Amino acid sequence: MDMMDKGIDRIVEQLRKGGRNVVFTGAGISTESGIPDFRSQGGIWDQYRPVYFDEFMKSREARIEYWRQKTAFYHDLQKARPNKAHLAVATLYEMGLVEAVITQNIDGLHQASGIPDEKVIELHGSNRRVRCMSCGRISSIEEAHKRIEEGDPAPECECGGYLKPDTISFGQAMPEREVEKAIALSRTADSFLVVGSTLLVHPAASMPGYAREAGAFLAIVNLSETPFDTLCKVLIRGKAGEVLPKIVDRLKAG
Ligand code: NAD
Q1: Is 43 or 233 the better-scoring residue by pLDDT?
Q2: Cα angle at 142 between 33 and 76, to 5 degrees?
Q3: pLDDT at 241 over 60
Q4: How many DSSP H helices and E strands does the chain contain?
Q5: Between helices 240-253 and 3-16, what is the axis angle to 10°?
Q6: Whole-model pTM above 0.90?
Q7: Residues with Cβ < 8 Å from 86, sequence gap 6 or more?
Q8: Contact 216, 240 (CB under 8 A)
Q9: Which residue ranges form the domains of the chain, and what is each CATH number?
Q10: Strand-pair category, 234-236 with 138-140
Q11: What is the chain's mean pLDDT, rounded?
Q12: Per residue in 35-64, pLDDT tens?
């Protein structure tokens, strides 16, 4: 039995105990759906400069650049479907073995895989909707992109406010309710499974620390290093779409 198999067995053994199991995901769970992550080579930061929140609010030029970047992401997103890893997490949820999913992702793929909205805590918002930065009105991302295609490169709300995909930009406040929920879940988890995250972006990356401090079984499935690699009980350097279905298969095999 190789290291990966041993790790998978330990996760399966832990999940079989029941309890409160939390899955925490980052961009790495969605790369196999064709959405590039941020920090790998060829990732988003190799192609674009980040537009900070205060720039977005101050400059129309920055808003145009922001929407230009979001348009490229939107096209990837329109094509993206949940992959084997998302589907495995959804199966674990259906089996009653996962309490909730905390995600840094903004792609909505956990919901698309069948996990109910209220069980997916989106720490960085969602690219599936748009928010007015003045009146707070939520509107559809499709409508905003239609306006862009029709020649309005930085669409505005009826109230005159700036429309922005409902995601958290650099320099923008985190969504309080989601952060509170995520902290509470992490602190009460019996097991905490990280999938596809560098665990570098805070406060999201603090969650595994809260879980570990509270005595949870911490496991990581990720292709590259994380600051928690020496602190977790199980570390699997593997592809999410290969490892997670194996966990499900072994649980189902009894
Ligand atoms: P990241 O880009 O910093 O790290 C992704 C990690 O996943 C890397 O360590 C990489 O080695 C690993 N990885 C890539 N493919 C994998 C696979 N198939 N299986 C296992 N591991 C794999 O991502 P992050 O830590 O989530 O943080 C970046 C931020 O970017 C997040 O806050 C998120 O909001 C945003 N983001 C979201 C999406 C999305 O919604 N899909 C995509 C890009 C960035």
Answers
A1: 233
A2: 20
A3: yes
A4: 10, 9
A5: 50
A6: yes
A7: 29, 30, 33, 109, 110, 112, 113
A8: no
A9: 1-35+81-124+174-254 (3.40.50.1220), 36-79+128-167 (3.30.1600.10)
A10: unpaired
A11: 94
A12: 888 766 655 556 678 899 999 999 999 999
Q: How far does the centroid of ligand 1 lie from the alpha carbon of residue 105, in Å?
A: 8
Q: What are phi and psi of 44, to 5 degrees?
A: -60, -40
φ/ψ of 183, rounded to 5, equals -65, -45
Amino acid identity, position 235: L
Q: Is the Cβ–Cβ distance between 112 and 122 less than 8 Å?
A: no
Atom of ligand 1 nearest to the CA of 200: 25
Over residues 59-84, the pLDDT tens digits come to: 999 999 999 999 988 988 999 999 99
Q: Which of 119, 97, 129 is nearest to 25 (CA)?
A: 119
Concerning whether 145 is annotated as a catalytic residue, the answer is: no
- Contact predicate 37/27, CB 8 Å: yes
Of the candidates 172, 190, 16, the one whose C-alpha atom is nearest the C-alpha of residue 92 is: 16
Which ligand 1 atom is nearest residue 73's CA? 42
